[in-house]
Amino acid sequence: MGERTLAIIKPDAVERRVTGRIIRRIEDAGFTIRAMRRVQLSKREAEGFYAVHRERPFFASLTSFMSSGPAIVMVLEAPDAIRQWRTLMGATDPAKADSGTLRKEFAQSIERNATHGSDAPETAAYEIGYFFAGVDLA
Ligand code: ATP
Ligand code: MG
User: Fold this and answer.
1) Which site in 1, 28, 52, 124 is 20 to 30 Å from 43, CA atoms measured?
2) DSSP code per residue over 36-85
3) CB-side exposure of 11: number of CA atoms within 13 Å?
4) Whose CA is closest to atom 29 on ligand 1?
5) Which residue out of 67, 89, 116, 128 is catalytically annotated?
6) Confidence at residue 1, expressed as pLDDT on a 0 to 100 scale
7) Which ligand has the nearest atom to the CA of 86?
8) Residue 110, Cα to own-chain centre: how many angstroms?
């Protein structure tokens, strides 16, 4: 069945109507979409999701951005999904992202960078539970 990771198409990409192009890239790369929904995060929910970053200088701006409009949250499954999804996304800063990555193509800045991906198995479990608690992912 493979590994699972939490992916987000962030509000900048939803606003720019590139959701379909990003989902196409996800499927072409071989991921299975196990669950998907559209969410409008409150500021408080964005703060909870990014709690590990609460001491960072960009925390207030990041959580305002993430609650500024709808986002698409997904559970992706593939062998080595956590690492593979981060590879497909590319570097956090689009100026440093490799060509062919989603952030190179779709990100506008280091903050408005189109997508999110979990960074470790424990984070993936927490983040999947954050949006899909009680949802049957079988
Ligand atoms: P994500 O967790 O969203 O998948 P990431 O793991 O590549 O991205 P993190 O270091 O976890 O990067 O930062 C979380 C998010 O905070 C980034 O995706 C970006 O939107 C924002 N961010 C990170 N660094 C900066 C920065 N220096 N200035 C502004 N925003 C930033
Ligand atoms: Mg991260």
Assistant:
1) 124
2) EEEE---HHHHHHHTGGGTTSTTHHHHHHHHTSS-EEEEEEEETTHHHHH
3) 15
4) 111
5) 116
6) 66
7) 1
8) 14
Contacts (Cβ under 8 Å, ≥6 apart) of 37:
72, 73, 131
Whether 116 is catalytic is yes
pTM, two decimal places: 0.97
Can you give the pLDDT at residue 94?
98
Residue whose CA lies nearest to ligand 1 atom number 10: 92
d(CA 120, CA 58): 22
Q: Low-confidence residues of the chain, pLDDT below 70?
A: 1
How far apart are alpha carbons 6 and 132 in whole angstroms?
A: 10
Give the model's pLDDT for residue 109. 98
Burial (CB count <10 Å: 0-12, 13-18, 19+), residue 59: middle
Question: What residue type is assigned to position 103 of the chain?
Answer: R
Separation of CA 14 from chain center: 12
